Amino acid sequence: MFITGCHRSGTSLITSIFKDLINEKIDESKLLTPALENPSGFFESKRIVDFNEQLLKVIGTTCNSPPVTLPIWTEPPLIDLLINSRKDFEDLAISSNWIDKDPRLCLLYPAYFHILLKRVPLIVCMREPIKVAVSLYARNGHSINLGLSMWFVYNHHLSKFLTENDSFYFYEEFLKASDTNSEINLYEQCCKTIEPISTKIATFDKFKETLKKRVKINLDRSSLASVLNENVCDLELLNICNEAYQKFHSSQKDLNIYQESFMSIPSSVLKILYKEKKLTIPYRNSEIKINRELYDLRNSNKGFEVELEKHKEVKKWLEVELEKHKEVKKGLELELEKHKEVKKGFELELEKHKEVLNIIQNTLSWKITYPLRFLKKKFDSLFS
After folding, report:
1. Angle at Cα 289 formed by Cα 284 and Cα 295, nearest 5°?
2. Residue 164 domain-assigned?
3. Closest alpha carbon to 62 in 144, 150, 127
4. pLDDT of 54-88, one tens digit each?
């Protein structure tokens, strides 16, 4: 089961409560780490968020610049990307007893038809538009008008995907469930929602403990909205958002009323998105294909660049080795010069000895003793 809704609509709180209701074991290492804006945690998996961010990037948009139209998921290259992603979500496809959430699913939910090969039921979190806008202003610095526009666009796209099998919950329902009757009513609603996916449902007492643990007084920051000067809001936009919300709120969560309220994007929303430079139309599939080819080409170039860097390193190493060999060669040449000097000294000594020998051989005593030396040589040869 997926839980979604515009950012800052209480998706994290409601997800934590539903996970407790089905007794889902939570692996903290697989979830986004808590932050100041969600100190109790986001309760959304890194895998889903990272993949959704990738999809938004591929179609040329972001979660803060929601597209005013949606891409065609059934045509290449998007369908190929989704098919190739099936192996990463196989556990969700073959199991039913799980809950995950991401506000980006308001924009990307149809993509999961082709990944999981089944329709996953949705829990939709709703919150007053001005409170969403104020919370986005506090967290991201978005203008109030941009926050209101995001709220409408998220609900507009989400309204196209919903069926009678999906459920709605208002953030305030959980914040204001302070008496037994309201808690019982909310518990029964939650049980009915999760009945198709879970055989074990927590008891009412466990539900009460969960509310006490999860719902904090400081979660209700509605007082922030009262400090805003109305001049910072586009009143036409504010009235349109309030009217859509109140109409659905008073309808007792009627799906048809919800879809009628968000059937089309008003011009005031488009004007704000344009003014804030957030008016985004997703790439056409042909553009996505070209972008993917450029991306692949850049990646291949990166491969060449890596290889080039490796060759540069090898070249640098060879140059260092060459310098070492030059030093060795220089040392050998110096040694060779020394040996040449030694050889030259020996040759001079040899010449001196030759001169001395020549003088001795020319003396009278050398000539007179020649017969004796001759006889000695013959005598030695006889006994050798």
Report:
1. 125
2. yes
3. 150
4. 999 999 999 999 999 999 999 999 999 999 999 99
